[in-house]
Write a structure and sequence with these properties.
Number of strands: 14
Number of domains: 2
CATH architecture of the largest domain: 3-Layer(bba) Sandwich
Strand content: 15-25%
CATH superfamily of the largest domain: LD-carboxypeptidase A C-terminal domain-like
CATH topology of the largest domain: Glucose Oxidase, domain 1
Structural class: alpha/beta
Oligomer: single chain
Number of helices: 9
CATH class of the largest domain: Alpha Beta
Length: about 300
């Protein structure tokens, strides 16, 4: 795996739009302001008006903007504007050789999980699962600081969160992959499906009722994917702004995952601080990690 070079205060973060359109310009302006407060400059290519109300622009233009940002010598890292839907439509247009030639940290989550995992798989580049530009405004300070640290200091020795819940103890080593459950499920059978064998799988989702989450988890189980894993990290699962409903959903997801993995011997953790809520800590995809349930630390393996 290639670890992109770290960036410095004053460097430029390129904003690209691989998925949905801007719904709230105020969130874009807030995100750019926060990037500047983090010490970075921001560069954004504006997308023209589109006839498709759920895409930022047509497929070719969204792919072209991404490649332009990669080749731009003034751009030191790339951050997705927002998620939504659209990455899957441009995957056959992505030039993975160009990504390998111009290794830069690429940041995002949700629908951008498609792009992040494909890049780490097919270009052997470490990517960052973390906030998109329009989510910076509601990300907590720890999440923003974790992103700054990854970009400017590189990989830490370990990641740790105070409220990690050990659902099934143990220790394992594997490649850290994953992201949005719905998005990963839609990749099954495509050339961009993530490798499952010896994977430490991170999962999160938003706006999905329990029966839909159950259906996707059960599908992954019956496809034999859970049997191949090294371990599971469960981030936040939410249906909106109601904390009680979110807490109930979280417990139901944990219970279903434990039912599906009751014959597995690998560790399963809940409350990993990433997802669509305020806690969305940045972490690398494509790196070799060790889940240590004794310390509740996710170590970056030396190799």
């Amino acid at each position: 795996m290639i670890l992109p070079p770290t960036i410095n205060q004053g460097d430029c973060v390129g904003i690209f739009s691989p998925s949905g359109p801007v719904r709230d310009q105020a969130k874009v302006e807030t995100g750019i302001q926060i990037l500047q407060e983090m010490g970075f400059q921001a560069k954004q290519f504006s997308c023209p008006e589109t006839d498709c109300d759920y895409l930022a622009a047509d497929d070719q233009l969204r792919a072209d903007i991404f490649h332009t940002m990669l080749a731009d010598k003034d751009v030191n890292a790339l951050m997705a504007l927002r998620g939504g839907y659209g990455c899957l439509r441009i995957m056959d247009m992505i030039d993975f050789n160009q990504i390998r030639t111009h290794p830069k940290f690429i940041i995002g989550f949700s629908d951008v999980s498609v792009l992040l995992n494909a890049i780490s798989k097919q270009a052997d580049i470490v990517t960052i699962h973390g906030p998109v530009l329009t989510s910076l405004g509601y990300s907590d300070e720890e999440s923003i600081q974790s992103l700054v640290s990854l970009l400017t200091e590189g990989l830490p020795q370990y990641f740790q969160a105070d409220d990690i819940t050990i659902l099934n103890s143990g220790q394992c080593e594997g490649i850290l992959r994953g992201g949005n459950l719905t998005t990963l499920t839609h990749l099954l059978g495509t050339p961009w499906e993530i490798p499952w064998e010896k994977t430490v799988l991170f999962l999160e989702d938003t706006g999905e009722t329990m029966y839909r989450v159950d259906r996707m988890l059960t599908q992954l189980y019956h496809c034999g994917k859970f049997h191949q894993l090294a371990g599971i990290l469960l981030g936040s699962f939410d249906t909106g702004d109601n904390p009680e409903e979110n807490s109930l959903l979280q417990e139901q997801v944990w219970q279903r995952v434990m039912e599906l993995t009751e014959n597995m011997e690998y560790p399963v953790w809940g409350n990993f601080p990433a997802g669509h809520l305020q806690k969305n800590h940045a972490f690398p995809l494509g790196v070799n990690v060790i889940m240590d349930s004794v310390s509740a630390r996710l170590h970056v393996a030396e190799n």
